[in-house]
Design brief:
The chain has 259 residues and is an alpha/beta fold. Helices cover 36% and strands 27% of the residues. An 8-stranded parallel beta barrel has the order 1-4-5-6-7-10-11-12, surrounded by 7 helices. Strand 8 and strand 9 form a beta hairpin. The two termini are 21 Å apart. The mean pLDDT is 90.
């Protein structure tokens, strides 16, 4: 049985760590480089970095922040936001990231996934999926819709069907973020998570809604996710990475040890 991963997420706006609720009302809360270093030292398995306004603002990612984070941590590091070409991917990898996360640009141009996988390997390509509940129907049979541009633009694309297509195109991993649960600390969207994990064979990261280690346990067991993304519960000091891993281990969930 593979170990489940605990992955802190750093949402960055204008070079500062920020956090909102349901993609709105973001407040700056710290320095992303210092925070990434602290999570690495506490035992995080990976770090995810999102430049949350890059796509909406039509600009590239802040590479200098990526470089500074990469200099301070020695665990896998995934970067997303404003990546819309192979040259963008190459620049992020050369800045020190191990993985590239594509989201809005991949929906607009799905070939970006296959071209990225061919150029850098599937293991380097993560597709981020921002998902919102909607009325189930012929076009969106699952009742979950892909939304792009930082949650601003509905697409009419069914999330489960998109996940399966991303796998076929060569994505090595999917990060499924529920906009409805994001920042609420009321638990992950388990129905969504389970629907995606049952539709694909690649690892799925559950994202959006963690308020307690118990929520993470649910996502990793009931939702069958390979990893759980966390933000608020560690950003505000309510829980530590070590404490979370101790809880998961005590409840029979295999996690990597902290040395």
């Amino acid at each position: 049985m593979l170990s489940k991963r605990v992955i802190p997420c750093l949402d960055v706006r204008d070079g500062q760590l920020t956090k909102g609720v349901k993609f709105m009302g973001n407040v700056d809360i710290g320095d992303p480089v210092e925070t990434a270093r602290r999570y690495y030292e506490e035992g995080a398995d990976e770090i995810v970095f999102y430049d949350i306004t890059a796509s909406a603002e039509g600009r590239g990612i802040f590479l200098e922040v990526v470089e500074r984070v990469a200099e301070n941590i020695f665990i896998p590091f995934s970067v997303g936001g404003g990546i819309s070409s192979i040259s963008d991917m190459r620049a992020v990898l050369l800045a020190g990231a191990e993985k590239i996360s594509v989201n809005s640009a991949a929906v607009i141009n799905p070939r970006l996934i296959s071209e990225g996988a061919e150029a850098f390997g599937s293991q380097a390509i993560v597709v981020g999926m921002d998902v919102k509940r909607t009325q189930a129907g012929e076009q969106i049979p699952s009742g979950y819709e892909i939304v792009i541009q930082g949650g601003r633009k509905p697409t009419g694309i069914d999330a489960v069907e998109w996940a399966a297509r991303c796998e076929r195109l060569g994505a090595g991993e999917l990060c499924v973020n529920s906009i409805d649960a994001d920042g609420t600390r009321e638990g992950y969207e388990l129905t969504l998570t389970r629907a995606i994990t049952e539709a694909v064979r690649v690892p799925v990261i559950a994202s959006g809604g963690a308020g307690t280690p118990g929520h993470m346990l649910d996502a990793l067991t009931k939702g069958r996710a390979s990893a759980a993304l966390i933000a608020s519960i560690v950003h505000y000091g309510e829980y530590s990475i070590r404490g979370i891993k101790d809880f998961l281990r005590a409840h029979g969930c295999k996690v990597r040890p902290i040395y």
